[in-house]
Amino acid sequence: MKIKLATLLVCFLVTITGAFAQNTSHVKAELLSEMTTIQPGGSVTVGLYFKMQKGWHVYWENPGDSGQSPTLQWSLPEGFTVGEMQWPTPKKITLPSLADYGYTQEVLLMVPLTAPANLKPGHMVRLTATAHWLVCQEICIPGSSAMNLRLTVSKKTPKKSRNAFLFQKARKQVPQPMPNEWKADGALGAKEIRLSFQTGERVTKALFYPLRSSQVENAKPQKFDPSGAGFQLILKRSDQLLENIKTLEGVLVVGDKKGEKSYQVAIPLTAY
After folding, report:
1. Are 89 and 196 found together in one domain?
2. How many Å apart are CA 202 and CA 270, to the nearest integer?
3. 100 with 65: CB under 8 angstroms?
4. Alpha carbons 63 and 69: distance in angstroms, whole number
5. Contact (Cβ atoms closer than 8 angstroms) between residue 176 and residue 263
6. 11 and 136: one domain?
7. Measured in whole angstroms, how far is the alpha carbon of residue 148 from the centre of its chain?
8. pTM value?
9. Where among 156, 173, 190 does a domain terminate?
10. Same domain for 165 and 88
11. What does the alpha-carbon distance between residue 103 and residue 85 come to, in Å, rounded to a whole number?
């Protein structure tokens, strides 16, 4: 767990064991499925759902200056495979001299699962996972919960669950690949990282979320400099980045009068 002393956060340990959903201090955690059935050899998307009290948050894949990302440890029937967790675009959560990346109100962290082809129709499969998380405001409260789902095996088209709308909403929040027609490059200096994007369209605001920790000073403002066909972002290089890196990965959020869009980016860097 990465929690800096400067945050002055006090942590209390909360360990919960149960199934399906758990209400702990300031957060409800639940394991959900998009479908109620699964086909032999088919796939299903499940998700770890958090609903937080006002003012509380859980963390993104890169938690920022403090915190810990949620995790799922799976115990699945033989032959099942687990895909990578899909992270919606986070929010920047500012603290005195620090900044975290995470989610407020609610978030669904989706995970694709694939079933073996030898499942027998009519049988029930049980999917079990142990979730771990950290929910924070002025204090941080770690939590964990053993959760499970039961799905009926069927050769028919899978049936949507009552929670399917949450998955539809979450997919819209997951960053998309950067458009092929866009061009991006960057320059890594001793104190700054300069990112340049050629988009072919007007962008009125942009914000970059680094995927890796200790590369960017999260709390420092990002300087946005628009141009007719793109824009430049200037980031403060982290004092903890002791060696030059060749690629900066993260999520880029851009906006105009029509709204915001987020993209997964991997920007090549040259030293200057």
Report:
1. no
2. 26
3. yes
4. 6
5. yes
6. yes
7. 22
8. 0.90
9. 173
10. yes
11. 15
